[in-house]
Amino acid sequence: MINPRQIEAFRAVMLTGGITAAAELLNISQPAVSRLIGDLQYALKLTLFERRGPRIAPTSEAISLYQVVDRAFVGLELIEQTARDLTARRSGALRVAAMPALGVGFLPRYVARFLSDRPRVDIALRGSTSPIILDWVATGQCELGFAHTPIDHAAVLTEKIHGIPAVAILPSSHPLAARDVLAPKDFEGESFISTSPPALLRSRIDTIFADHDVSRLMRVETQLTMNACAMVAAGYGVSIVDPFTAQDYVPHGLVVRPFEPRIGFDIAILRSAQVPLSMIAEDFLAGFLEEATRFRDNFFDIGGTGNGGELVRGTEL
Fold first, then answer.
1. Which is higher by pLDDT, 312 or 166?
2. Residue 28: exposure state from Cβ atoms within 10 A (0-12, 13-18, ≥19)
3. Is CATH 1.20.1250.20 correct for 4-87?
């Protein structure tokens, strides 16, 4: 029966063209290489090398065998390289799902930067509503999910990101665009574009206006905040939305202003309760949190309202 050491010696002789060079490559003695080759020939019942003067030459059988052996070694080397890449976080695959607020603009831009120096990392990015994202993570179809709160599922671990304030959005020609900060009373009688219930952000917005006895003209309701941003940028109505979506419409004429009292916009980071995150996923999540903090600070500093500090993470098990 052949053994791996014999195959290793055979490959070394084929690569180097001689017993002496093969011994140096394997860091063993010449007699040891000769013995391994002899044992291999005996086990295979094949003559693999013929002596021609001071040198040896492979037989046609040896050349045919080497083609198979080399492919096997390449496979082993690929396994070893892949393992090294995984350890060094240079390769791997990641499946991520996100709600539209993140999945349309902010997250794809972050993914592009994340992949720029990781040529052997593959990412599948999916977008949907929070209940569907929860199901994808719970059933193992996605490793990471970004969704609206609240989230409750026995098979899913949830981390909340707090500290992201919702923002008021206006057409550039609107009189309120001249103000630095907007309050509930500023929206009295304004055509207001709302997100569809039961969104938590919608509930918080409605509560704020009810507490301040402000009546808005509820003319349009939409499921997606990007629709609200597009309509406001086109010159119709006002709204309060998440800053991630609002950012993408600033170049199209959208005016963004801080809103007081502050309305918190929370993000739930979802992962499996049964399967630990891969090293690539851990890196991806850490980078996402840094990117979200940087976005929040830069976005509101541009508007003159930077509040500094890192995003607050809370874990719910």
1. 166
2. middle
3. no
